[in-house]
Amino acid sequence: MLKLLRIIVVTVCCILICVLGTIYSFIRFKKPSNVGVMARCFGRLCPLFGLNVEHRFPEGVATYPRAVYIGNHQNNYDMVTISYMVRDRTVTVGKKSLIWIPFFGLLYWVTGNIFIDRENKSRAHNTMAEVAARINSDNLSIWMFPEGTRSRGRGLLPFKTGAFHAALTAGVPIIPVVCSTTHNKIDLNRWDNGKVICEIMQPIDVSNYTKDNVRELAQYCHDLMEKRIAELDAEIAQSGK
Predict the structure, then answer these.
(1) In Å, how far from its chain's centre is CA 237?
(2) pTM score, two decimals?
(3) Mean pLDDT for back-to-back runs of 10 residues, the chain (241 residues)
């Protein structure tokens, strides 16, 4: 019964956010701040899932320069956990098929996010070049999930290099964002689904890397994030939450 009630309430809330957010974003057509506003709206739904989400922001995050943010992509619950961490003037890069999701697809487009055609490598490469150009020309930051797909309990998957090529081309730092493990943690029939921690890590300077060793940069970021996720999981386990 609780699961059914949650599904109904969450569905209604998501539709309302999408509809009202689309109207709001049409008024402020593709303004970069739209994405963060909508992401935080979805993030506020976490109590409906019985989740206590702690959001950790480093000191001085408000003055961070434009950057490429990279997050771990676990499952559909990312929408109410790690999405809250999207900063102002940050847009995301997502697969073009998102446009066909009822209500959400239109919102995703009108807020100013960038679509990528993953099936066409040439177009995907051109999109990354466009992303790098827009970072500087429009004073934007970019948010990407470098795993390219949801991990669904398989741990932090290997990173694709698109986000790192964009950072190198634009000459901006990489900023990892991590979320503790949510796989198999959430039972919609359970009132309390415990604690989740989302954290923005320190910026990573990319000036010592080039396109020739971009995979080393991707692996370095992967290892840092993997280690931090394990630390967050251990912290939650120790607290018993």
Answers:
(1) 24
(2) 0.92
(3) 92 96 91 92 95 94 92 94 94 88 92 79 72 88 92 92 93 97 92 95 94 95 97 91 68
